[in-house]
Amino acid sequence: MPPTSRVTVLWSDKYHPDRGLQRFDAARYDGLVAFLNKFNDGEIDALGVSYAIIEALFNSEFSHSSKWDVDCANCSKVVTGATDSADTAGTADFPVSFQCHQRATYDHKDIYSVAEAKAKIVVLSRSEIHVELYSYYVSG
User: Fold this and answer.
1) 5 near 31, Cβ under 8 Å?
2) d(CA 122, CA 12)
3) From 41, 50, 79, 125, which residue has the greatest number of CB atoms within 10 Å?
4) pLDDT tens-digit profile of 73-119?
5) Are 119 and 107 in contact (CB under 8 A)?
6) So what's the pLDDT on residue 65?
C-alpha cells in the first residue's frame, strides 16, 4: 500500500479555472508524500515544502535530455501586508503564500525553447496547502 499524506493538498489548473480547487494526489509524485509528512511533523518549513511541490510538478511533466539546462526551482514569498517580511519567508506563521516556478531552457543550433511550471502555493496550515493556477508550458 502506498504511503498516505497527512496534509490535504488542493490544486487548480490555470487552463481550466472553471474546475476550481480539486483534490491533489501527492502519491503520484515520487517522494512528495514524504516531504508533505515531514512538513506536517514540523521538520520542513513552508518554503521548503513549496519547493518540493513545484519541483515534483515540474519533473512530472518535463522530459529531460542532455541538451536542456534545468534551473533550480524558485519560490518567492507573496507579500500581502505591512507586517510581512521577505526575511521570514520560511518561518512565517500561517497562512503564507509563495509564487513558485521552475524552468528549463534548450539552446542548440539556432533552436531556443523554454519549459516552465508555475503556481501560487498557499500554505494555510501544517495540514492544508493549496496549489493555485498551476500551469506548465513549452515554448519555442
Assistant:
1) no
2) 12
3) 50
4) 999 999 876 555 444 444 447 999 999 999 999 988 888 999 999 99
5) no
6) 76
DSSP 91: T
Q: What is the pTM of this model?
A: 0.88
DSSP state of 83: T
Joined together, the cell numbers standing for residue 53 give 511541490
As a whole number of angstroms, the distance between CA 55 and CA 121 comes to 12
- DSSP string over the chain: -----SSEEEEEETT-GGG-SEE--GGGSTTHHHHHHHHHTTSS-HHHHHHHHHHHHHHHH----TTEEEPPPEEEE---STT--GGGTTTPPSSEEEEEEEEEEEEETTEEEEEEEEEEEEEEETTEEEEEEEEEEEE-
24 φ, ψ (degrees, to nearest 5)? -105, 125
